Each structure stands twice: as C-alpha cells, then as structure tokens.
Amino acid sequence: MVEMHEMVPGKRFDRYHELGQHAFGEKLGLYIVVPQQLIVEVGVCIVYMVTGGKSLKKFHELVCENCKSIKLTYFIMIFASVHFVLSHLPNFNSISGVSLAAAVMSLSYSTIAWSASAAKGVKENVEYGYKAKSTAGTVFNFFSALGEVAFAYAGHNVVLEIQATIPSTPEKPSKGPMWKGVVVAYIVVALCYFPVALVGYWMFGNSVDDNILETLEKPAWLIATANMFVVIHVIGSYQIYAMPVFDMMETVLVKKMNFRPSWYLRFVVRNFYVAATMFVGMTFPFFGGLLAFFGGFAFAPTTYFLPCVMWLAIYKPRRYSLSWWTNWICIAFGVCLMVLSPIGGLRTIVIQAKDYKFYS
What we know:
Blueprint: H1 16-24, H2 26-63, H3 72-86, H4 96-120, H5 135-152, H6 159-163, H7 175-204, H8 212-215, H9 220-256, H10 263-283, H11 287-315, H12 322-353
C-alpha cells in the first residue's frame, strides 16, 4: 500500500478507493473497495465503542467496590459522549495529538497487563488444554481466534489516508517516512500483543478473558489505571477509523445529493454516525465475537488480499516469480480467513447472546 501510494508520477492515491479505481476501473474499483472499507471502519468503531464502555465499567468497579452496579449500556453512552465532541475535528492532522496519546496508552496498558499477570503468578489448577469440550467447538474457536488475530493486524485500511498527510516531493517521496512509521507501528504492536498473549496464557491458561484486564483484579489501582489507558487508546483509534467515513459520507451528500457544504451538515452527519455506532455497540456488546466476525469478514479482504490483487493487476509481475508467488499465497490465506473467521465469530456471538439481556 505504501509503495502504491505514488506509483503514478505526479499523482497520489490519497484514498483506498482511488487506488482501487486505478487497479480495477472507475466503477468496478468503487464497487469492490468502498463497501469493504466501510464495513471495516464502521465495524472497528462499533468494537471500540464496546471496548471503551467495558473498560469504563471495569474502572468504576475497581475504584468504587461498594457503589451500585451501573449497566454497561450507560458506560458505552459515556464513552460515546467524548466522540460527539472529537468527531468535529476537521482532519487527521488535527487529531495527531490524540493519536500519539493513543499509541503511548496502548504500550502502557499492555505492559501493565502482562507485568501484573506475571506478578500475580500462575493460577491454581490452571489448564492449558482446549477450552471447548468437543472437536467441533475447538474448530470453531480456532476459526474465531484467526479473526481476532486478523483484527489486531489490520491498520492497512487507513494507510493511504495517513500517508496523504505527509509532504512529498520527487526528491523526498512520502514513502520514506511512511515506511519508517509502518515499521515502528508494527514493532509497537508486537511489543503490546506478544507479551500479553504469552504471559497471560501462561498465568491463566484457557480461563483468561478476551480482554485480560477483565481477568485481573489486583492491585486495584494499577488495573484501574490500565483500563483508563485503554479508554484513551480507543478514543484516539475510533477517530482514526471514523475520519474516512466522515469524508465519504460528506462527499456523497455534497457531490451526489447536492447538499451545500456547511457546518450544520458536518454536525448532523458526524453526530448521526457516532450515535449509530453507539446504538449498535449497546445492542451487541460481544467483544470477542465482534472481533472475530469483523476480523474475518471485513479486515481479511482489505488487509490480506485486496492489496495483493491490486499489486498483481497494476505491476503484473512475471508469473511464478517471487513477487507473484508471495501475492498469491497472501490472497489464498486472506480468502480462507474471510470465509472461516466469521463462522467462528458468529458462533461466539450466538453462544454469548443466549443468556444476554439487551441493554443490560
């Protein structure tokens, strides 16, 4: 994606769909890319609504043990209230401070998670076997896990929009600093996720929650702090994925439906989007199931095989060359991920929904 941003001399593909149009044609490119990208970005925002609400609820329970329990629905509404304000920032540059804070918080809360787990020690009677009791359950859980991993490594969907904010000249193209940013981003992701996964499983085995911070209880002040770090992280991340949706919605309303660009059009569109993702998050607050479903159904195409298809269509590498084989292997993997992961995710949601009361 980084390399294809300025593949045509004198032109920059600032949006995912623009690159799709160059690869597949004006109309077909839109039909292929835009629906997938919208599903990704809307899906992420819904998951972040649920994550933010659950982290706020956990924070409240830890700092006020004797307080009356408050519904998760209300915490999701509290989290959404922040976005009713931040969503009116104009572009990616204006949320750079929020994004930086989100990155720092991500590294901080993940460090707290694995260090607190290690300090707690191995749980008594810990089990490391499969969580499911049947072969079918184990297979479905494996499908679900694939989707969750895909969700974790899926920042490709906004790469072009982010790279568009970097100044570029023929002497110093934007791909230079962008590649450095991508490498740093993946190093940070690895530092966040791998220690948590390894130490968390070592300490709690198969009883660990989807969000390990829900499993941990003590020291209360440290786990409460980590949950607030999560909230700050997903506030910034929500905005990063919401900005392209705002741009698409406002562009369609102005160019296709002849609305006059104005502050109240922006006000209505952005508030409607935040309210819609808040409502869906309140209705289906199934963190693990949503991760797996959206990770496979939406993230797999836009992250794992659409960029490879575009690369093959545009660059046309020699058949059976290393580039040709690498892209086709990624395409095959991405298609399998897209088909299998949503099955596991939907099953997880159905199981979790059995005893769930809406808006509880």
